[in-house]
Write a structure and sequence with these properties.
The protein is mainly alpha-helical. It has a single domain, classed as Acyl-CoA Binding Protein (Up-down Bundle), CATH 1.20.80. The protein contains 4 helices and no strands. The mean pLDDT is 95.
C-alpha cells in the first residue's frame, strides 16, 4: 500500500481504538502527525499556563529534521501497535 494511503488509513484507525492511549502515546501521535503533515515546527512555543499546548509543541519540536516519510511510517507503526494489528 502506498505510504500516504496507509497514513490516511492509520488516521481513521486511531479514531477506532478500543482503549484510550496514554498521554505519552497521544503526544507521540500528535507530534508524528504534525511532522508528517507540516514538517518542522515553525511557531513559537506557547507561554503562560497552557501546559497542554507546551507539551504538544515540545513533542513536535523534538522531531525536527525527521522526514515526512519517516514520521508517517512511525505514526502508522504506533497506530498499529495501539490497535494491536
Amino acid at each position: 500500500m502506498e505510504l500516504e494511503k496507509e497514513f490516511e488509513e492509520a488516521q481513521k484507525l486511531v479514531k477506532e481504538l478500543n482503549e484510550r492511549p496514554t498521554n505519552e502515546e497521544l503526544l507521540k501521535l500528535y507530534g508524528l502527525f504534525k511532522q508528517a503533515t507540516e514538517g518542522d515546527v515553525q511557531i513559537e512555543r506557547p507561554g503562560g499556563f497552557d501546559f497542554k499546548a507546551q507539551f504538544k509543541h515540545d513533542e513536535w519540536a523534538s522531531l525536527a529534521g525527521k522526514s515526512k516519510e519517516d514520521a508517517m511510517t512511525e505514526y502508522i507503526q504506533l497506530v498499529y501497535h495501539l490497535k494491536k494489528i
